[in-house]
Design goal:
binds uracil; 4-stranded mixed β-sheet; 13 strands
């Protein structure tokens, strides 16, 4: 026996070495929590070189991580930096996370709706990348709105308004910053355990009591395969519940853009129109999903007995204007000019506009939502590389939904681009992404499956068997 202990047994007090951990994972063995903590600490501090971290990510991607390894990775990443404590707010802290999509602006609705019903919503959001939009970019189309708050400022806005939507601070979950950038460069993004740990570590570092996950399915989803979406949803629920956060995951349809606007300012304008209690055309799916998600947030946060009664409370807060008042107060508390919502159309100043008309008569049978997301990005509303600026006034307004009957020449969408020369590309992408045919497509429900602590564990047991 080696007097220093067995370096291959992670429970021994012997010092750990990254090369041994790499060999162990490469050969398909499960790592101990201590070994995973070692990797995460080394990623956050820079003590482990990037080539070894990259090799570990690839080994983890190919060999897979067990449920215990996934939980250990999530918790170690959560604890890799500063954390937010919602205790001074004196309310249950509840957030919603969406796995991304096109036209997904539910955050602007669910945050004030849940806050109006008595829970605190400390929401840490991301930016647009690839075909999906980013909540922070959309909010920054409001003149003056600050997304980079200190944790102290975040707490002050939460105390004042009940919700706050900000970006990740440099000190929150530093391990994810390093590992996510490496995953992006080493083809190791699409792995349920790595995605679960990356998403949950950031949510759990905000000290949440409860979390609602909106996992997208369909042509615009990050994971296209329905079974992969289910596995990820169940894994996130089981992992977050094991960390003490009440969690539900809803699988929701991203087989067409959510609502009628996809872009930056135009999405905020649509959300605020709903918060005013209006029912604009083609926004019904957005209204419904926002109320469902808010209902779950309110129920898991202890302010309603069931998600259905949470839905009713949220709808009342939508119709009596209390959620709108909270949203506008949050905008002002974060330095934004809330007056722009008085004339949303007047404030909208796109560089160039074009209307795409139906090229034949029939039903809209399919919308390739990922391609539509790229069309939105090409208007100038999104970015190709991290750090690039986005155009607040660019985007696409849809005038028809899946299942709609359209006549040749009828407007399908209005494209708002930064410059005239940028109009043809998104117009072409849009024409290629929409299928018009003679048959009406089948109805697709907005929510196809729900995972909670009652069914997630069993699902995972069956899936890994
Ligand atoms: N979003 C994240 O934050 N992390 C992932 O791994 C995937 C999506």
């Amino acid at each position: 026996m080696n007097p220093l202990g067995d370096p291959f047994n992670g429970n021994s007090p012997a010092p750990l070495h990254m090369i041994d951990i790499l060999r162990k994972k490469r050969d398909g063995a499960a790592l101990t929590a201590r070994e995973i903590e070692y990797v995460v600490a080394g990623a956050a501090s820079g003590a482990i070189p990037l080539e070894q971290l990259a090799a570990w990510l690839m080994a983890a991607w190919i060999r897979g991580l067990t449920l215990d390894e996934t939980r250990a990775l999530t918790l170690a990443m959560r604890d890799s930096g500063e954390k937010f404590s919602p205790a001074p707010l004196g309310k249950a802290a509840v957030d919603k996370h969406s796995s991304g999509g096109v036209g997904d602006k539910t955050s602007f609705l669910v945050a004030p709706l849940a806050a109006a019903c008595g829970v605190a919503v400390p929401m840490i959001s991301g930016r647009a990348l690839g075909h999906t939009g980013g909540t922070l970019d959309k909010l920054e189309s409001i003149p003056g709105y600050r997304t980079a708050l200190t944790l102290k400022e975040f707490e002050e806005v939460l105390k004042k308004c009940g919700c706050s939507i900000v970006g990740q601070t440099p000190t929150l979950v530093p391990a994810d910053r390093v590992l996510y950038a490496l995953r992006d460069r080493t083809a190791t993004v699409e792995n349920a355990s790595l995605i679960c740990a990356s998403i949950l570590s950031k949510k759990l570092a905000a000290g949440l009591n409860a979390l609602v996950l909106d996992v997208k399915t369909g042509s615009g989803a990050f994971l296209r395969n329905e079974k992969d979406c289910e596995f990820l949803a169940a894994l996130m629920v089981a992992t977050a519940e094991a960390a003490g956060t009440r969690t539900a995951a809803l699988l929701t349809d991203m087989g067409q853009p959510l609502g009628r606007a996809a872009g930056n300012w135009i999405e905020l304008a649509e959300a605020v129109e709903l918060l005013r209690g209006n029912r604009p055309p083609y926004s019904e799916d957005l209204r419904e999903l926002s109320l469902i998600l808010a209902g779950w947030m309110i129920a898991l946060g202890g302010q309603a007995a069931t998600p259905e009664s949470g839905y009713e409370r949220a709808e009342a807060a939508l119709m009596d204007g209390s959620a709108l008042r909270i949203f506008l107060a949050m905008v002002e508390a974060q330095g934004g000019d809330a007056n722009v919502f008085e004339d949303p159309v007047g404030f909208h100043r796109p560089g160039a506009t074009a209307v795409v008309e139906a090229w034949e008569s029939g039903f809209i049978t399919e919308m390739d939502t990922t391609a539509l997301g790229w069309a939105v990005q090409r208007t100038g509303a999104g970015r190709e590389k991290a750090g690039e600026p986005v155009d607040p006034h660019a985007g696409i307004l849809f005038h028809a939904r899946r299942g709609a009957k359209v006549e040749r020449g009828e407007p399908l969408a209005t494209i708002y681009a930064t410059r005239e020369a940028m109009l043809p590309e998104p117009s072409e992408l849009l024409r290629g992404a929409i299928t018009i045919s003679g048959t009406c497509p089948e109805f697709v429900p907005q929510v196809s499956r729900i995972f909670t602590r009652e069914n997630a564990g069993k699902y995972l047991e069956d899936a890994v068997r």
